[in-house]
Amino acid sequence: MERKRFGVTYFLRKARTNKAGLTPILARITTNGISKEIYIQCSVPADKWNQSKERATGKDKLCQQVNSYLDEYRARILAVRQELIAKGYEGNCIQIKERLQNPSTLSIMFVAELEKYCNKRQTEVGVRITQLTANKYHRVLRYLKEYVAAHYKKNVVTYRPICGYIFQLA
């Protein structure tokens, strides 16, 4: 069994310092050597940031609020990862980033959506596209259904936008 590595680090994007002197804080989520960065909607003065501790230094109200927010955000990241793993996903940085940026994203039926799109394109025959082009869309749909039936022994494919590329079999 391979060992899964996971880490969350915070850092400043100093090139994006605004006129008020605040520098945005980004979170870097790393899983198995792959990392993704997320802007966490939080800023702090660059001179009040300790990178080794990944915390805002100082006793003022802003630094306390920033540190509190960083703790809450780390807890959210860990909760999302645990939720993904509980649902049978890998829980990698791409999935976590997608879930954090789109928390209300629901699963959509990929095949059903593709069917709707094919039907929409069919109504455009003679107006925007030719029948040959519409047939290509339907062929892709048929090939996808055949592939899923042959490879996964299932008839339904659910696309999870939170991960971008994982198919969950219903």
Summarize the structure.
By secondary structure, the chain is an alpha+beta fold.
Word description of this protein:
The chain has helices spanning 61-86, 93-101, 110-123, 131-151; strands spanning 6-12, 22-31, 34-45, 49-50, 55-56, 108-109, 157-159, 167-169. The protein is elongated. It has 170 residues and is an alpha+beta fold. It has a 3-stranded antiparallel β-sheet, covered by helices on one side. A 3-stranded antiparallel β-sheet has the order 6-7-8. Strands 4-5 form a two-stranded antiparallel ribbon. Strand 7 (157-159) and strand 8 (167-169) form a beta hairpin.
Q: Unreliable runs, pLDDT <50, ≥5 residues?
A: 104-108, 157-170
Class from secondary-structure proportions: alpha+beta
Largest sheet: 3 strands, antiparallel
The overall strand count is 8
Distance between the termini: 26 Å
Q: Helix tally?
A: 4
Quickly count the domains. 2
Overall geometry comes to elongated
Instruction: Please state the average pLDDT score.
Output: 81
C-alpha Rg (nearest Å): 22 Å
Approximate strand percentage: 15-25%
Strand order of the largest sheet: 1-2-3
Q: What is the chain-wise order of helices and strands?
A: EEEEEHHEHHEE
Helix content: 40-55%
